Amino acid sequence: MTKASVLIVPGLGNSGPDHWQSWLQQRHPSFSRVEQADWDAPALEDWVRSLEQAVAAAAAPVVLIAHSLGGMTVAHWAVRSGSSVGRVAAALLVAPPDVESAERTPPEVHGFAPVPTDPLPFRALVLASRNDPYAAIERSCAFAVGWGADFIDAGDLGHINTAAGYGPWPDGERLVLDLLRAVDGGA
Fold it and tell me: How far is it, in rounded angstroms, from Cα 117 to Cα 146?
């Protein structure tokens, strides 16, 4: 279907079997998941290293499909100029959490603060919800601006996870497929 390698980058706790990232991976078996040694006690350096290894091992061009803390992992990795960053053609960053907010996010993710503010060296799209408990829509938009990413205000979708009813997420799949077509040159 695509010439790009797709890497799914889950957040805290991994994306369980009913999460939209798992649903997407089941529908597209060629998509791979970035694995972390500890999904419940994330360590920034470890998560960045795992992403670097996965991107380096994938065939270029790479498209990253990240959710929540996975999106913050992508941003940290990209601005640290991982040696494989040039292999990434695009990224979809869904519901990045405000890791700087003790009121909105759990302590487990605060080690990912501060939020990187440098432009990402590849095409990026940030999709956020107006009623995400982990980030105010204004903060999500500010992330996109800092990262030089396009921004989609998705309306009221919660954290766009299983608890919010995303499981199957055809609109998300459509975004991924559109991004892949763009990376593949409209093929």
Answer: 5
What pLDDT, on a 0 to 100 scale, did the predictor assign at position 187?
47
CB 6 within 8 A of CB 65: yes
Least confident piece of the model among 29-33, 96-100, 143-147, 165-169: 165-169
- Calculate helix-pair angle for 170-183, 20-27, nearest 10 degrees: 60
Going from the C-alpha of 187 to that of each of 60, 83, 87, the distances in angstroms are 16, 28, 19
Q: Tell me, what CATH number does 31's domain have? A: 3.40.50.1820
Distance of CA 169 to the CA centre of its chain: 15
Q: Tokens at residue 83, please?
A: 């040696």
Q: Which residues pair with 90 in a beta bridge?
A: 63, 123
**Whole-structure pTM over 0.90, yes or no?**
yes
CA distances from 146 to 51, 119, 132, 164, 167 (A): 21, 6, 20, 27, 30
Confidence class for position 44, pLDDT limits 50, 70, 90: very high
Stated as kind and residue range, the H or E segment containing 186 is none
> Quick one: pLDDT at residue 186?
56
Give first-to-last CA distance, the chain, whole Å.
9
* The pLDDT value given to residue 60: 84
Rounded Cα–Cα distance for residues 111 and 136 (Å): 19
Residue 83 belongs to what domain range? 5-183
- Say how many domains are in the chain: 1
